[in-house]
TrEMBL record:
Residues 250-324 form the CusB-like beta-barrel domain. NCBIfam families: RND_mfp (TIGR01730). Gene3D superfamilies: 2.40.30.170, 2.40.420.20, 2.40.50.100. Signal peptide: none annotated. It comes from Bradyrhizobium zhanjiangense. Residues 131-190 form the CzcB-like alpha-helical hairpin domain. Keywords: Transport. This is Efflux RND transporter periplasmic adaptor subunit.
Length: 402
């Protein structure tokens, strides 16, 4: 029996099988009834389909002191950083000086005291002010008598009971006494006596004639006191300055801007002030850019005005000023504390019904304590902005399998 036919059949069958599974032969496979091999699909686990979630209820969120905000658009500025020093506003510093010679009889305010405008700081005894007050009282009395006399002569002249010349003389004398009274009044004002004090002189006790009150010209705080009780003050090389009062409700920030950066700085620009060793920041505006450069440093003096209602910005403190050169509107801006790094990517924690969902984002430009989110977060979503490190720590804890 010959095995040659069987060998030929086996070779033919192997060739057909190779042709069926060769590339480009799906039609042949379909013709002979061979089904195409389906690609194998790996089953997706539920964990692979979900974003990581930190499960927390409202009570745990409150205990963890996690603050939440709804994000939205904001302004991001490019800023120039310049060192600076806090200084008193030159328009809010008052040097209280005396305008007459005398001695300090009473001191009502001391260093550090808060004073209001017009409040009495001290009292002086002065022969000069006593003479001026006496002169005023004499001129006032003379004027009252002469005005009465002029009024009487006018009535007599109108009734033809006195000649016109008598009335004219009385009228001229009344004008002269009125002028002398006004001169005496102006002298008291020049010595620092106020209008209400002048008006009360006729009823004032005699002892007050030699006394002169020194009042605060502005509201603020006593920064210096130059005299003690009994100190002789006034002219003839004596001390004339009694107090220095500073109003620190608004201060200046003195900046030195280099000549190369000076063309970028303009009056009216916003400045963010950060103190050394202080977590707080404040915002002011540039009010002056000097047209002159310092010879030694080749820099210009720039002054920014800063509101200081609580007095925390003390003159002499060193600060860093970030001058806003230009800004743009960002669709989504978040506090810098809202960002964390998880597995090498920047993320935020978005509030969900179960707690906080971890969302990867792409940060943009930063402006101080806020940062732009270029991608990954939409306006209106609520995120955690404080104590987010505790949420990051929760991710590293082992979780139960669903």
């Amino acid at each position: 029996m010959s095995f040659r036919p069987f060998i030929l059949v086996a070779v033919f069958a192997a060739g057909v099988a190779s042709a069926l599974w060769a590339p480009g032969m799906p039609a042949l496979r379909k013709a002979v009834g061979v089904a195409a091999e389906q690609p194998r699909q790996e089953a997706k686990t539920p964990e692979a389909e979900r974003q990581p979630v930190v499960r927390m209820d409202d009570e745990r969120i409150a205990l963890a002191k996690i603050e939440q905000v709804q994000v939205g658009p904001g302004s991001i500025a490019r800023r120039l950083l310049v060192p600076g020093t806090v200084a008193p506003d030159a328009d809010r510093v008052a040097h209280v000086s005396v305008k007459l010679s005398g001695t300090v009889a009473e001191l009502r305010k001391n260093i550090g005291d808060i004073v209001a405008q017009g409040e009495i700081l001290a009292s002086l005894e002065s022969r000069e002010v006593a003479d001026a007050k006496s002169e005023y009282l004499a001129a006032r009395l003379a004027n009252e008598l002469q005005q009465d006399l002029a009024g009487r002569d006018k009535l007599l002249w109108e009734g033809r009971a006195a000649p016109e010349l008598q009335y004219i003389r009385s009228r001229n004398a009344a004008a002269q006494t009125a002028m002398r009274l006004d001169i005496a009044r102006q002298k008291l004002l020049a010595l620092g006596v106020q209008e209400n004090e002048i008006a009360g002189l006729p009823q004032a006790p005699e002892i007050s004639l030699r006394s002169q009150n020194v009042r605060a010209p502005i509201s603020g705080r006593v920064a210096a006191r130059r005299v003690e009780l009994g100190t002789a003050v006034g002219r003839d090389n004596l001390e004339t300055e009694l107090f220095v009062i500073v109003d620190l409700s608004r201060v200046w920030v003195e900046l030195a801007v280099s000549s190369s950066d000076l063309p970028l700085v303009k009056e009216g620009q916003t400045v963010r002030i950060t103190g050394r060793g202080m977590p707080e920041t404040a915002f002011g505006k540039i009010v002056f850019v000097s047209p002159l450069l310092e010879k030694e440093t080749r820099s210009a003096r720039v002054v920014a005005a800063l509101d200081n209602p609580d007095g925390r910005w003390r003159p002499g403190s060193f600060v860093t000023a970030a001058i806003a050169l230009n800004d743009h509107r960002a669709d989504v801006v978040v506090p810098i504390g809202a960002l964390q790094t998880v597995n090498g990517r920047r993320v935020v924690f978005i509030r969900s019904k179960d707690g906080f969902e971890v969302r990867g984002v792409i940060p943009g430009e930063r402006d101080g304590e806020v940062i732009e989110i270029a991608s990954g977060l939409a306006a209106g979503e609520t995120i955690a902005v404080s104590n987010t490190f505790s949420l990051k720590a929760e991710l590293s804890k082992p979780r139960d399998e669903d």
